[in-house]
Amino acid sequence: MKVVTTRAELRAVRAEFPRLGLVPTMGYLHEGHLSLVRMAKQECGAAAVSIFVNPTQFGPGEDLSTYPRDLDRDLRYLREAGADLVWTPRVEDIYPSGFATTVTVGGITDVLEGARRPGHFTGVATVVAVLLGAVSPTRAYFGQKDAQQVRVIQRMATDLALPLDVVVGPTVRESDGLAMSSRNTYLSEGERASASVLYRALCAARAAAEGGEFDAHALRRLMAQLIVGEPMAEIDYVSVADPDSLAELATIDPARGALLSLAVRFGRTRLIDNVVLPPSR
Ligand code: AMP
């Protein structure tokens, strides 16, 4: 496994791999990341991972300075998972002096996470464009855990005609259903126990929809009621949205399906999760 920092080092090592799958990450890796690494390795024959806590996707007052980091542990996990190349750029390797470009994806970034975290997706799209340009992978891998991010990257890749495939991996969960996240480490013991309510609420709404409840307002209310039952949880949003436009729905059209998603705070920790209602055939 080669570990590189500068773009020149990256370029030299990149030439060794005819096909390469890239998994962009912010480090503090867990099984969600590693599942993408294994998928990349299996599909492309070689897997690259970038580890970069991207300052431009954090808003003022967010957790940039406290974001968890443990490079030694990450590298150990990545060796075990079979990664071939790890890029750990410094801020100046991604944004060298004179850097003046931003990538903004319109429309779908106005809602959900984009509405609550202004500038977040411009930070994400810009850094991913730099990572993809520098690594030039055959395929790039992203987790369904960040559903809106997936839509933003797919939109950017299509619109900019990027010569690669965007692949989406399923959300990896803890045994109680909590989606794995580097931010779970912020939770106190009590908060961690309550945090399983995110997935319980999503599953309850999915079950209701599968049982014929297509009223999106009723599904939002069902999710909200379950979350309110957890005293430590504070709802940021619950959403039943069109899977493509991400616009809030009044009624689910079973032929189109829906994205059920939510953001919930536990103290200073903000967690997100989602499930997809697939279109019925
Ligand atoms: P992050 O390090 O949080 O930026 O995540 C890097 C990549 O891993 C993103 O594409 C995430 O969507 C993905 N990811 C994070 N958590 C999970 C999870 N629990 N299951 C699957 N993918 C995940």
Task: Report on this structure.
The chain is α/β, with parallel strands linked by helices. The chain has 2 domains: 2-169, Rossmann fold; 182-274, Pantoate-beta-alanine ligase, C-terminal domain (Pantoate--beta-alanine Ligase, Chain: A,domain 2), CATH 3.30.1300. The chain has helices spanning 7-14, 31-44, 71-81, 91-94, 112-116, 120-135, 147-159, 189-194, 197-210, 216-228; strands spanning 2-4, 21-25, 47-51, 85-87, 139-143, 165-169, 233-241, 258-266, 269-277. The strands form 2 sheets. It has a 6-stranded parallel beta sheet. A 3-stranded antiparallel beta sheet has the order 7-8-9, with helices on one face. Strand 2, helix 2 and strand 3 (47-51) form a beta-alpha-beta unit. Helix 6 crosses helix 7 and helix 9 runs antiparallel to helix 10 (216-228). The model has no long low-confidence stretch (mean pLDDT 98). Residues 25-26, 32-33, 36, 142-143, 145-146, 169, 171-172, 179-182 line the site of adenosine monophosphate (AMP).
